[in-house]
Each structure stands twice: as C-alpha cells, then as structure tokens.
Amino acid sequence: MKTHSGAKKRFRKTATGKLRGRRAYSSHILEKKSPKRKRRMARPVEIAPSDVKSVRHLLGGTK
User: Fold this and answer.
1) CA distance 15 to 37
2) What pTM was estimated for this model as a whole?
3) Domain-by-domain residue ranges, the chain?
C-alpha cells in the first residue's frame, strides 16, 4: 500500500515512534493572537491520541 502523499508532507515520526505535526489554527487570523501563543504554535506538537491510528495508517504503518 502506498503512503498518503499529503500525510507524508504534514506528519513526521520521531525516533521513539511518536507522531508529530503542526499545531492547528496557526496559519491565519494571527493579529488577534498573542505573541506567546504564536510562538507556541510555531513548534511541532504530538498528534492527539484519537488521531494516531488514522495518521499511522496514512503513513503506511500497520496499526
């Protein structure tokens, strides 16, 4: 089965097997967001436990 092209551009597997991706709400309507919040959103975040199964499937994982 092929890896999902959109998913491979958006998510990365860490050395320990966790999944990381960009934080939501970080790309537009930035004027009203505080600088602290914007700095926090610039860093990658671990994928929510509820989404891990589907993202792993898209990346070609077995689980």
Assistant:
1) 27
2) 0.77
3) 5-58
